[in-house]
Amino acid sequence: MSHTLSVDDVILKSRLFLGTAGYPSPDILKRSIEAAQPGLLTVSLRRESKAGKGQDFWDIIKSFDTPILPNTAGCYSAQEAITTAQMARELFETNWIKLEVIGDHYTLQPDPYDLVKAAEALAKDGFKVFPYMTEDMVLAQQLIEAGCDILMPWGAPIGSGKGLNNIYGLKMLRERYADKMLVVDAGLGAPSHAAAAMELGYDAVLLNTAVAKAADPVGMARGFAAAVQAGREGYLAGIIAPQENASASTPLIDKPLWHQKHHQGTP
Asked: Fewer CB under 10 Å: which end of the chain, C or N?
């Protein structure tokens, strides 16, 4: 177990991965990144001109010495995701891709069938695939067989802020795939949710909405950064197992003098 995390020999400076969409202003985005000091920045492939607002965004992203993880957000089929990933590789000059293939408009749950199909095609094409998935064990195995050595199960639906909806499922994934990099992606709303994920032994967390839509995004970014660090420290230190009965932290070697006097009738 290590405090450092690396992908393809690139050492990441933090286990907090931060999305860059939906911030109130470019300045708040920049200050939030500075506060979070993330290990990765996720960005969507956008067909924007390089003038005006789009240029402001790219200037901010490029000003940080932080690896970029492009994503295929908004894709609803394997072919659409594959095409978007290929375009992202040319634009961002990286073979890393966060693979999203949405199957349900309401929950934004990934389509497991097209997700595996796209992951297999992209892995064969030389991509390092970070698949956004549910916490399903069978899907995890299929993605690994498709060529993924990183898995990114959701905590809850994207943007819901519900935290870890299925702790049992997340724990089982961590135990089953102890040798894989696992990242809780989506649904986190509070720093305590991130700490809980890290305490389960997850390697990192990825979030966007919880910071971008907070009343104070900069303060929230700072809070999540501290929570991720605290959760990791707790996991490495070894969290005690819960038990039903109380257990005194101080051993009672003998009764105190005042207790003896009280029972002997001494005033």
From this structure: C
Q: What is the pLDDT of residues 28-38, one digit of tens each?
A: 999 999 999 99
Secondary structure (H, E, C), the chain: CCCCEEECCEEECCCEEEECCCCCCHHHHHHHHHHHCCCEEEEECCCCCCCCHHHHHHHHHHCCCCCEEEECCCCCCHHHHHHHHHHHHHHHCCCEEEECCECCCCCCCECHHHHHHHHHHHHHCCCEEEEEECCCHHHHHHHHHCCCCEEEECCCCCCCCCCCCCHHHHHHHHHHCCCCEEEEECCCCCHHHHHHHHHCCCCEEEECHHHHCCCCHHHHHHHHHHHHHHHHHHHHHCCCCCCCCCCCCCCCCCCCHHHHHHHCCCC
The answer, yes or no, to whether residue 65 has pLDDT greater than 50, is yes
Q: Which is catalytic among the residues 53, 62, 98, 117?
A: 98
